[in-house]
Fold this sequence. Notes:
The chain is an alpha+beta fold.
Amino acid sequence: MTAQTFRNEAAEAAVGNGRREANEFAIRPIEEKDLPGLEWDGVYLHFRRLFRQAYEDMRIGTRHLLMVEHTPTGGMVGQIFIQWSSSDPRFADGTRRGYLYALRIKPAFRCRGLGTRILAAAENELHRRGMDTASIGVEKDNPRARALYERLGYRVIAEDPGRWSYVDHEGNIREVLEPAWLMEKRIRGGHEED
Length: 194
Ligand SMILES: CC(C)(COP(=O)(O)OP(=O)(O)OC[C@H]1O[C@@H](n2cnc3c(N)ncnc32)[C@H](O)[C@@H]1OP(=O)(O)O)[C@@H](O)C(=O)NCCC(=O)NCCS
């Protein structure tokens, strides 16, 4: 059992015991030591290289990675990634619009406000950089997530074929097809031009 596995099991046990204080959770930037936690004990092992690359991008300032930490155990229970710019300006343009993705909360910790909290924290990061619009993609077969984003002020602006590829932990190229809605939200502040 890895240290991360132990911390995650301890975190889930704490929820099972009914200790559900909101202040048991903290949202903070991901550090190098947190990278194994992003793999969720193997569920996302195939994204290992993507996670490392995203972390390296954060170090040079082209991305930002946030996590929800279960503070009593240090275990990771959720995450969101932010991309400041993209080759497709509907997603992110480096100045006003940033793209939020890879939002996940571990199953045992869902439906208690953590997804909403980390999304708000990501919007705050965009605001701190002077951006005024957040975009997010949601798979077409995920109506509950879409409903959550609509409740939080996002609206659909485009369809995205969701075709992309990545190199997995064993060096194999994996093709992905995830048809999605692209949603956006104006966030407070940003560049005050209009
Ligand atoms: C979507 C997700 C991040 C929400 O996190 P959360 O902490 O449960 O969110 P909150 O507690 O702030 O809000 C609860 C709402 O989240 C949504 N939600 C809850 N569980 C969900 C699930 N398994 N899948 C999708 N949406 C879910 C629902 O809209 C829910 O409200 P409802 O109970 O009225 O239906 C989380 O459920 C998750 O990680 N789901 C799996 C991965 C995913 O779908 N990510 C989004 C990719 S676009």
